[in-house]
C-alpha cells in the first residue's frame, strides 16, 4: 500500500465494468481525491457489449449464506430501491425451485427465513402453486419441481440500463478521462517491482501512481492469476416475444431451478432470456507470460471467447439445448421449433476458489491494485462496490471481508476448488470440445 494514497496524483483503472466504473464514481465523489487525475481505459467503447456487466438483466438477490455479503447486498438493494437507477430495478420476486438433493437447500433457506419472519415469502409446496405464482403455462410434474418458494423481496435490474445510468452520473463530475483502447501489458519495473501504468496495443503508455486492474474475466491476461481466478463461460439465449406475451410475464418472479441452474428473468424490451448459472466452459489459451521479461515464456489460462472476438459465435449445441428444454418445460408455446433463439451469447464469470471477490493490493508489485473475482454474483453490488474497493485501496478493508478479499496465500489447482456451492448443471466442459460436438444453429 502506498503510504501516501491520500496524495495520489493519478489513478488508472483498467476496465469499465461494474467494478471499474463504480470505483471511478467513488473516486469522483470523495473530496480527498479532488486533485487526483482519473483515467478509465476499456478495450470496448461504452457500454462494453461483451463485458459481464452489460446485459438485459441481472438478479438482485441479497440472500447469501455468508452474512457479510448478505449485509452488503442489502445495503446495495436499498439503493436500487431508492436512489440508484431505480427505473432500472424491478422487484418482481424470485422463485426458487429444486428437485432431488437441491431441495434441501430450498428447505434450509426457508427455515432460515421463517425464523426471521420479515421477508415476503410464499411457500410453494405443489407444482400447481409454482405454476400459478410464476405464471407458467405448464404445470410441472409433481414428482419433480414441486418444492419451492417465492421471495417477493428480491428483484432484477436492467444491467445495461444501470451501467449507462452510472456512466452519466460519473460524466456529471467531468473528472474522468475515458480512453477506448486495449491494454497490452502492465508497465512493470522489475528492479523495484513496481507497476506504473499500462502499455496499450498501439504501443503508447498510460502512466499512473496507482493502477487498478478491474478487467473482469480478462484480468488473467494481464497478471498471472493461475490458481487464483479462472474465467468460465456461461450460456445465455434470447428470443423475441409478442407484446401480449411480454405483458403476461413482465411482473412474474424470476424462476431459478437450483437442480439444473437454469433460470428465466421476466422478459423485457420484447425479448425473453434463458441462462445457466453453471460451472461453465473453460477456454484454455496459451499467451506470453504477462509478468515475464522473457517474451518466449508462455502460460495457459482460461480466457473469454465472445461475440467481440468472433462475431459469428454461436454457443455450443449442449447449452442451447439445455436452455430450450428449460423453456419448453415451463412455457412450451415459446419453445416450439418455429420460434428458435435468435441471439445466443457467452458471458464470462471471473471465478475464485470459493466465490469470494479479489479486492486487494498485489502482493509483489507496488502501485498495483486488483479488483475482480466477481464469481457470477458481483453485479447486484454496483451501487456500493466502488466505495468498498476504495476503502480497501486506503487500507481500510472492512474487517469481515479481510480474509475473503485478500490475495490468497497459495495457488490452489483449479480442479481442487470447492466452488461457491451455488452452481448446477454439467461439470468440466471445455469450450472447444463442446464446439466440436456440434455447433448450435441459430
Ligand atoms: C451470464 C452472467 C450472469 C450473471 N448474473 C448475475 C446476477 O444475476 N446477479 C449478480 O449480482 N451478478 C451476476 N453476474 C456477475 C456480474 O455480472 C459480474 O460479477 C460483474 O458484472 C463483473 O464486473 P467486472 O467489472 O469485474 O467485469 P466486466 O463487466 O466484464 O468488466 C471488465 C471490463 O474490462 C475490459 N477489458 C478487459 N480486458 C481489457 C484490456 N486488456 N484492456 C482494456 N480493457 C479491458 C472489458 O472490455 C470489460 O468492459 C453474472 C455474470 C454473467 C456473465
Ligand atoms: C488540492 O490542491 C489545492 C491547490 O494546490 C490544495 O490547496 C488542496 O489542499 C488540495 N486538496 C487535496 C484534497 O489534496
Ligand atoms: C428474500 O429476499 C430478501 C431481500 O431480497 C433477502 O434479504 C432475504 O434473505 C431473502 N430470503 C430468502 C429466504 O430467500
Ligand atoms: C429442474 O431441474 C431438474 C433437473 O434437471 C428437472 O428434473 C426438473 O424438471 C426441473 N424443474 C423445472 C421447474 O424446470
TrEMBL record:
It comes from Paraphaeosphaeria sporulosa. One of its GO terms (molecular function) is proline dehydrogenase activity. PANTHER family: PEROXISOMAL SARCOSINE OXIDASE. Its cofactor is FAD. This is FAD dependent oxidoreductase. Belongs to the MSOX/MTOX family. Pfam families: DAO (PF01266). InterPro entries: FAD-dep_OxRdtase, FAD/NAD-bd_sf, MTOX. Keywords: FAD, Flavoprotein, Oxidoreductase. Residues 11-387 form the FAD dependent oxidoreductase domain.
